[in-house]
Amino acid sequence: MRITCPFCGERELGEFTYLGDAKPVRPAPGASQDEVYDYVYLRDNVAGAMEENWYHGGGCRAWLRVTRNTLTHEISSVEPAAGAGARQVVK
Amino acid sequence: MAEFSWEARSPLERALVSEPYGVQGEAGVALTEIRNFDLVQVMARRGKASEMATAAKGHFGVAAPETPKAVRTADATLIWSGPDQFFVLSKGGRQSVKSLVPIFAASASLSDQSHARVLISISGDKARALLAKLSSIDLYPAAFPVGAVAATSMDHTSVTLWRGNDAPGGRAVFNVLVFATFAESLWQTMLDSGAEYGIEIGHSEELA
Amino acid sequence: MTSSQSNRLDTGGLIDRSQPLNFRFDGKTFSGFQGDTLASALVANGVKLVGRSFKYHRPRGILTAGSEEPNALVELRTGARREPNTKATTAELYEGLDAASQNRWPSLAFDVMSVNQLFAPIFVAGFYYKTFMWPAKFWEAIYEPAIRRAAGLGRAAGVADPDHYDKAWAHCDVLIAGSGPSGLAAAVAAGRTGARVILCEEDFALGGRLLSDGGTIDGMPAADWLSRTQAELAAMPDVRIMTRTTLFGVYDGGTYGAVERINDHLPSPPEHQVRQRLWRIVAKRCVVAAGALERPIVFAGNDTPGVMMASAMRTYIARYAAAPARRVALFTNNEDGWRTVGAALGAGLQVAAVIDARAEISAEHRSLASKGGFPVLHGSVSGIDGGKNGVRKISVSLTGGARAEVEADGLAVSGGWNPAVGLTSYHRGRPKWRDDIAAFVPDGAPPGMVAAGAANGAFGLGACLREGFAAGAAAARDAGHGSGSGATPVADDEAFSLAPLWHVAGKGKAFVDQQHDVTASDIELAQREGFESVEHLKRYTTLGMATDQGKTSNVAGLAIMAAVNGKSIPETGTTIYRPPYVPVAIGAFAGHHRDENFHATRLTPSHHWAAEQGAIFVDTGLWKRAQWYPRTGEKDWLESVTREVKAVRGGVGFCDVSTLGKIDVHGADAGAFLDRVYINTFSNLAVGKARYGLMLREDGIVYDDGTTSRLAEDHYFLTTTTAKAGLVMQHLEFCRQVLFPELDVQLTSVSDQWAQFSIAGPRTRDLLKEIVDPSEDLSNEGFPFMGAREVALRGGIRARLFRISFSGEMAFEISVPARYGEAMARNLMIAGKPFGVTPYGTEALGVMRIEKGHVAGPELSGTTTAADLGLGKMMSTKKDFIGRVMAGREALVAADRQVVVGIKPIDKARRLRSGAHIIPKGETPGPDNDQGYVTSVCFSPTSDQWIGLALVERGRERIGEIVHAHDPLRGEDYDVEICNPVFYDPDGGRQRG
Hints:
The structure holds 3 protein chains of 3 kinds.
Chain A: E1 2-5, E2 9-12, E3 17-21, H1 33-41, E4 49-55, E5 63-69, E6 75-80
Antiparallel strand pairs in A: 1-2, 3-4, 4-5, 5-6
Chain B: E1 29-34, E2 38-44, H1 49-60, E3 70-72, E4 76-82, E5 85-90, H2 97-100, E6 108-112, E7 117-123, H3 127-134, E8 149-154, E9 157-163, E10 173-179, H4 183-194, E11 199-204
Parallel strand pairs in B: 1-11
Antiparallel strand pairs in B: 1-7, 2-5, 2-6, 3-4, 4-5, 7-10, 8-9, 9-10
Chain C: E1 16-25, E2 28-34, H1 38-44, E3 51-52, E4 59-60, E5 73-76, E6 83-87, E7 97-101, H2 127-131, H3 138-150, E8 165-177, H4 181-191, E9 197-200, H5 210-213, E10 216-217, E11 220-221, H6 222-234, E12 239-242, E13 245-251, E14 255-260, E15 276-288, E16 292-294, E17 307-309, H7 310-318, E18 327-332, H8 339-346, E19 350-356, H9 363-372, E20 376-387, E21 390-398, E22 403-407, E23 410-414, E24 417-419, H10 422-425, E25 432-434, E26 439-441, E27 449-451, H11 461-478, E28 511-513, E29 518-519, H12 520-528, H13 534-541, H14 554-565, H15 569-572, H16 586-590, E30 602-603, H17 607-612, E31 616-620, E32 623-628, H18 637-650, E33 653-656, E34 661-666, H19 670-677, E35 690-696, E36 702-712, E37 715-720, H20 725-739, E38 746-749, E39 754-760, H21 764-771, E40 788-792, E41 798-802, E42 811-817, H22 821-832, E43 838-839, H23 842-851, H24 884-887, E44 898-905, E45 917-920, E46 932-940, E47 945-953, E48 962-967, E49 972-979, H25 989-992
Parallel strand pairs in C: 1-7, 8-9, 8-15, 9-12, 15-27, 17-23, 18-19, 18-23, 19-20, 30-32, 33-43
Antiparallel strand pairs in C: 1-2, 3-4, 5-6, 5-7, 10-11, 13-14, 14-15, 16-24, 20-21, 21-22, 25-26, 28-29, 31-32, 33-39, 34-37, 34-38, 35-36, 36-37, 39-42, 40-41, 41-42, 44-47, 44-49, 45-48, 46-47, 48-49
């Protein structure tokens, strides 16, 4: 598999580390235990396009949001994580 | 009171033996370790990438690379190392972390990496053939021209690879910055991989 | 020299008769020529019997002339280079080649195990499943060894392979598999546009079937076109021709696997060269011009030596000038098989008869038969008379029911051609059936790949050239290169007519998969027993599961299954195709990663100094760390380690701890960031101070620990454990970039920038005073416990000094830029000489941390909470941090959790071992009363006995209780007392003093 890092260009799989589903959003402080439980454990078992977190640890160390088809491994988009680099992020 | 000597030793000081290695005859690959350099990691503070660029331009006279490229200044090479960050590689303390801190005080964080990396320069007719065993990067001349940079891995080890100016005669020169504690291991792998081409080995105090 | 080559034709062939080569087969010396394969040289020497079959030990000969060969497998080379299951049909001949037949004893001609044939009725499909089921323990002890002796293939060398292997990457616009007419046409079409082309050819020569079948291309003999094309390609700087290279797999994103047999054609690789190289090729486009494989017709006795694929027979005749037989018969169901008649007649061989299963043959062939003076029999071969010395007589069932016999010493068989659909089907592609050629052809392919020529079902030479050329030009265009392909090479298209015939019913064994001895009746039996699906058929009969992966047998097998099921072949379908296309040596996948280069290693800055001191090193992750420093006269590690511990506790010692992960955390929000990743607070840490920190995973379990110092308002220096250094960096980057992108934080690994030493023991300050500049205040007031700041050293360099302790002693950690690490070790020895300074290794480090009750890797096991480790009070209640909410889950705060305690044996002389289970005293050990386990143990020189840390249910409430340690792994049972985990200086006076 090859992933096109938005910073480095197309690279081989060995440079990347897979984390998993990029959809769950970390609950704000004060969230209930149930909400955090869902964030930590609840995952969709997607057959098809799935947004995933990948780390370009063997390259520029950017976290990436990769849309990958779990059936074909086809990658349809790769976006940097919000905080990759020094972009100003307002939360 | 005891006398202390603080001799700096390259991590490759023992592994590097300056004599031909592998197949005899004209060496296909030259491996040269460049010793005693200053290397500073410059990373933009959150939201300060343009301020960092301005500071770099003002100080170095050229723009710091914003894409995987290496640019030469009068006394340093600026090497892209990731988004909104770059290395300053220099010799003789001209661009040490101490001298750079005030330049980027308002825009970037600096980390001294002078001792954290070993710099190996690879050239020769078989340089690309050797590197093809270590690197998944396409080093075809048009795909990886002079000044091209890759933050990548060799032998599962993170490296910064860039193509320096061609040597006299037009031969390509590739530079590899590897983490110091991995250097001897990668060096052995380079010897192992390059033995079939014949290797000329040396070290230098001069940046290529 | 050539006298032994009884079956070598006087003229012709692509062999170099000026270069004779001697070789040995089963101990007998033969000769051949440069350009031969082992198989062609054996053919030239009249050798027909080359092996015994897998299950029945039946005599077998050479069936094919390529990598699809099921029978002619040999052990090639001897000693450490002995390589089993090597195909004689692809092994190039070299001077001194030494090969032995396989699976026979005591000799190939007289094989005791051929009695298996007499028991053939029991060796049917599913035999193993049915027979060796009970009792289970008989399997390992009795059945398997016996079966292994009786059945099987070659023997591995049994010793380490002395050769080097290699791995490399390559990149191109257009990758072409195969150099037959289609592949070469694709290469010129793509190459002429300026595209970067890689052409992989399995053979040592380019040309594919052109080398055997010739033909006319662009008005010239195929051989001339071939040399012209090779010359043209050789002149293109961006076209790379790789012979002896098999493209064996395709992976996601246009990555292909290929194995290049660089030096397999030599007795051993020249010095410094590798034997084989594994290529990972990244290609924008790929043209599969891998050709087609001729398929057999299954009939009784079809495995008799001398029965050969028709195309292989003419390859031996035309390419190698070697006659597989003197009097040849042909059994065909298609037009193409007849080419073998032409080749045989051209070489002056007799043609005994052609048995053609079709009702009609062409006028051209009728006239060839009358000119050649041989009969054409319409019908099928129903049996073979012959044995280990080859075919003698062929029984024919004529259309209409009559029988005939043909005397011949060789039978060429052609059942048609199967396109090589492997590469195009490796992404779970299912090939589609084409009735006109009665074969499966690719139905689509992985992205970027296209099949052309025979691999795509186009069997005519003209069609191959056109398809290949068009595919090459299109691939170059798609890869971003323009026109300029020039003119398509032109050749005629031969007629291809075929009447499908898979299996001729008859008496006697009719083999489908010759390598795994699967017969037509095995398939029928599998069907009767309900294994109708092709995937079940494959597993039940082992059809297609041998080293040839059923290249000559799969389609015939499923055709027979289709027939007995009363279904069509496309309804029956194919099994899933998986790489590799040919077997690839594990050595090639390993490349240089073997022995000491198995993985990359990391060396500490003082490594070579430690080696000089005679240190014993231990692998911890990728690191080599000094484990202890033995001294002359010490009888074992324990004595050395005990000495080191005592030296530290009684004086001063130092240890290289550079392996700790070190991270610069910069930025205005660095403190806020650390507050979120640690359970305790760092934003309130004063500049110049260090603090121990604990990180959780988001699920509430402890992730890592270490000390973090604040060096400036916006600069922290964070350390991690050695084991988790890389993972913590990844985790922190995740926090920075994904979870908390709004924070102004920059992270840089500085693990390799600093050589860091722990200096510990009551004389630490004395030692430091020697080495640190006198202007620095190291007093308890000037540099209190958990102080952290930069200091000047004597001799002009600067260091970072941290007053932290892992040993429980008065201790500092000192960091200098890494290239001074070795000098630091030497200078510590000089500075500490008056105080008896002792370097210590990881063992002594471990002993002292256990004595002090500090948790480490064995306790941070991925199952423990902060409270389990006795660090629950560190958890801030005033802020959010990773893992906070989940750490409060019911099960993670349960009262009966296993928590860290100390243990000591009741018998003071007893040695403890980690891993022992903790059981309540007086109870029988079992899962129901397992209350924990011993995590870390050491011999404590301070306590003068073995001590340990353990995770024990409700442990802190049970201090003083005597429990039972049960160690079934080592067969040990003994009692231990639960105690406070801090064995040494529990009030901490020593480290603060």
